């Protein structure tokens, strides 16, 4: 699993972040887990099985017709597709005789602009989905609930105005202290017309990690 989190930075920008470590047969490698839909100001990341949440779901997004869609209708289609992909993995696991593990499936957090409106949805491996902007912050993966606790604690200490640094603190705490979540953390800033790097939290704490907005 991993940690993927989203925060509403302002009325015109979102922050989407994920850890960058993949583990296969106890070997860890570092690769970005953030993805952007071609020709759309929409980005996503996934916790759990990257073959489903990043690769297969990504191929579906690249062929999806966004014309005439709003966030609600798109989310219905997206959870339907993720359910198909996760369901197929459940069937393969059943046929193999292996015991099911939720890490075999994928959760997805997707955000950006659609039909000119900011939006974000959390899509769960159990078939549920919800508006990820309802409370201004959402996280999925092993560290999801811990990230929420860390964020609320950071907000108490630093105040609600220091959005970027409270987000950095929450992500760093989870990546360093929660099982199966690892540094480095990569974050993108999503705007109506652009998606750009926001910050990276490396394996060693640096002053700039908690400095001015980048």
Search tags:
33% helix, 4 helices, globular, five-stranded antiparallel sheet, Glutamine Phosphoribosylpyrophosphate, subunit 1, domain 1, single chain, disordered C terminus, 214 residues, alpha+beta
Would you summarize the structure shown here?
The chain has helices at residues 50-63, 71-96, 144-158, 163-177; strands spanning 3-10, 13-19, 21-24, 27-30, 35-36, 42-48, 106-114, 117-123, 129-131, 137-141, 185-191, 195-201.
Alpha-carbon distance between the two ends:
28 Å
Number of domains: 1
Shape: globular
- The secondary-structure element order is EEEEEEHHEEEEHHEE
Strand content: 25-35%
Fourth-level CATH superfamily: Aminohydrolase, N-terminal nucleophile (Ntn) domain
**Could you say which structural class the secondary elements and strand pairing correspond to?**
alpha+beta
* Count of alpha and pi helical runs: 4
Output the strand order for the largest sheet.
10-1-2-11-12
Task: Tell me the CATH topology.
Answer: Glutamine Phosphoribosylpyrophosphate, subunit 1, domain 1
Number of strands: 12
Summarize the amount of helix as a percent range: 25-40%
Second rung of CATH, namely the architecture: 4-Layer Sandwich
Backbone CA Rg: 17 Å
> What's the overall average pLDDT, rounded?
87
**CATH class placement:** Alpha Beta
| Biggest beta-sheet profile | 5 strands, antiparallel
**Low-confidence blocks of residues:** 207-214
